[in-house]
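Module 6 notes. Inverse folding takes a fixed backbone as the condition and produces residue identities as the prediction. Think of it as a translation problem where the source language is geometry and the target language is the twenty amino acids. Below is one complete input and output pair. Work through it position by position during the lab.
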């Protein structure tokens, strides 16, 4: 108990193993990209039937009114919302927006592992590309 109190009072030592744990690999991506990664992984799993069914009902496939090349691209329909309100952060809006912004090679991944790998590569390039 005394060690825990000392730890809480002074914090970890800079050279401790606490900073070199398994979570240290995830430092490359800022918080926004981590959130996008989680949302896009849920979308991929929902579209493949690996996530809870209620998530699949929030995602509507894009079907244009006339034949277009984009109808085979795997896009999702964006619901109409007021962007200034909190509904712009809702899963039903944010997930299709992020999904539609992905390159085709990431969206068309054959498995969850391949999708994760391609998505991390894509987000890494977005995060650290020089403007």
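Target side of the pair, the amino acids:
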């Amino acid at each position: 108990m005394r060690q825990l109190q000392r730890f809480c009072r002074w914090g970890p030592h800079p050279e401790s193993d606490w900073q070199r744990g398994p979570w240290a690999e995830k430092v490359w991506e800022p918080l926004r990209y981590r959130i996008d990664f989680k949302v896009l992984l849920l979308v991929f799993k929902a579209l493949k039937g690996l996530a809870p069914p209620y998530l699949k009902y929030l995602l509507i496939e894009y079907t244009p009114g006339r034949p277009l090349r984009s109808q085979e691209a795997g896009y999702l329909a964006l619901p109409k919302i007021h962007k200034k309100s909190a509904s712009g952060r809702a899963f039903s809006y944010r997930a299709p927006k992020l999904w539609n912004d992905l390159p085709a090679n990431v969206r068309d991944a054959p498995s969850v592992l391949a999708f994760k790998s391609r998505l991390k590569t894509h987000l890494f390039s977005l995060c650290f590309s020089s403007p």
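Reference fact for the lab report: Residues 29 and 124 are 7 Å apart (CA to CA).
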